[in-house]
Amino acid sequence: MRVEIKYMKALPLLLALLMSGSILSAAGLSQTETLTWENARAQAAKNSLEIKSAEAQLSSAIQTESAAWSGFYPQITGQISNTSTNSSTSSTTGLSAGVTATEAVFSGFEDQAKVEQAKISLQNAEINLRVAKAKVSADLKGAFASLIYAQNQKSLVDKIKALRESNLRQVELRFQSGRENKGSVLLSSAYLEQAKYDLLQAEQGLENAKIQLAKVLNIEAESAQSLRIEGSAPAVQLQTFDPQQLALNTPDYLLAINQERSAQATLKSSKSGYWPSLSLSASSTNYGSSWFPSTNQWSLGATLSYSFFSGGKTYYTTEAAKQTLQASIYSQESSLRLSYLKIKQAAATLREAQQKVVVDSAFQEASNLREKIAHEKYNNGIISFDDWDLIENDSISRQKSYLQSLRDLIAAEAAWEQALGKGSIQ
Predict the structure, then answer these.
(1) Strands 33-35 and 227-229
(2) Are 7 and 358 in contact (CB under 8 A)?
(3) Tell me: the pLDDT tens digits for 204-244?
């Protein structure tokens, strides 16, 4: 089912209105760094230590996978020796120089198992890099949304403070003319103090949001004070999807599959003790009593060996590998169910967040209009202070709720993408 959201068309205009003016004109700042989503995404992808660590692990896994193939290639060694023998009757010197090549023809499938495990480790490193990028993308989206919210909240609270100041002057004039009571004046004064407190919180929240974004971008906290966000993160639309099919491609499930494959390779390696091993060797050696030795000797050989008894090592290692394999099968089944559940929950949360924005947008529009009408009626003496107060406070509350819903929606979108192991950073 395609989810349609009316707020998407109005969101850019709303953000532009809320962020117009000097939202970040803090004292002492002579320069402001404006970030769009694309700028922030590029910086996070470039600077993230989590991504760099995952990339280094992937590079290491590539080298390890190449090294695992060494068992299939001949091993060539060279040697030079100088042997002196002394006795009561004579003294001799023996010099030799030679090259030996050895090829392991069959090692009980142990070499194949090592290659399989190295390939699995490489795939795991690729998946872990995907996980790291998805996490950084989700963290960035959350920090980006929090800073947008903090900027908009600061702008809104500034307006509320100005409104409370205007209301207090109006109520004081009516009190002085005998048309309002002292309680209304005191309540209006308390609202103004509340607005000042809310402004203090909004300013601190704005600073904290900047620091959090700086952390995700991996830049100095001092540099965060000049950050300003423009625009918004890209919206996510839920299309018709099969959660079971999506769960099969989640990083957690793919890692669980590789865990089973690794256990199978370990079992194959542990069984190598039950098999004979066969190797071929060839050597060429020059020996003599002076350098360079002139007498040449070469040899070819084949070695077939079999371990009849290893103290139970092969048996117990194999049995342990079987149990590890069985445990990985259970873990794979559990991982699939858990991934399925996470996807269902993330989708439900996202749908609710999308609908909450629609609801809060409608309430905000209605309450704002009611507040304007009520203000005019109060000015004309048609309604009481108490009625006007209720309507105005409801309007303020609805505006705050709408900003929170926009922030929560982006957080829900980030959680949905992370549940799939995807994100904006590729």
Answers:
(1) parallel
(2) yes
(3) 999 999 999 999 999 887 777 788 888 888 888 888 889 99
